[in-house]
Amino acid sequence: IGEHILAGRADLGISRLPLDPRLFEWAPLGSARNVCIFHPDHRFAKQTCIEAQDLAGETIVDIDPQFAAHQMNFNALRFAGVEPDILVEFDCNGHEAGYVSAGLGISITNEIIAREYAAFHLGIRPVEPSALYHYVAIWQKGRTFSNALNVSLEAIIAAFSNVPTARG
Q1: Digitized pLDDT (tens) for each residue of the chain, 168 residues in all
Q2: Helix (H) or strand (E) holding 154
Q3: Long-range contacts from 71-76, C-beta under 8 angstroms, 24+ separation
Q4: Residue 71's Cα: distance from chain center in Å?
Q5: How far, in Å, CA of 148 to CA of 115, rounded?
Q6: Which of 36, 37, 32, 35 is nearest to 120 (CA)?
């Protein structure tokens, strides 16, 4: 997203912190914690929270290791003594919902991304230990906003202010 903004292909974007304050300015949108998504018939449907040891022996669908979310998720598992059994790795959010809804495994994502999967009717439960993600609307540092950009930024902020979470 940052590359698109710096190259002039986008005026505004949605990203997660950290960002380089020498290149970008931002407005906070919200924070999200990790959740586990799973087929509705999965044993996790009976639990209120998924802990690292619960993932032992589970087949996992996960984002590619180049993404920080992968490292944070699996470092937490390894710290708890669980070596992940990864079936599929993907490089774009959204792919996991198809694999999980087909019953091929479970996945760990965050509350905001999981909200996008509502049409799949997946089970969603909080995960502990959890990473904390801070989402922001970003633009190039020093950018002068037109009326249209101001309206767009206000719309993005308003949309995030109505984002329900797995915790309530």
Answers
A1: 999 999 999 999 999 899 999 999 999 999 999 899 999 999 999 999 998 888 888 888 876 555 555 555 666 667 667 776 666 765 667 778 888 999 889 998 888 889 889 899 999 999 888 888 899 999 999 999 999 999 999 999 998 887 554 444
A2: helix 147-161
A3: 72/131, 73/34, 73/108, 73/131, 76/52, 76/129, 76/130, 76/131
A4: 13
A5: 27
A6: 37
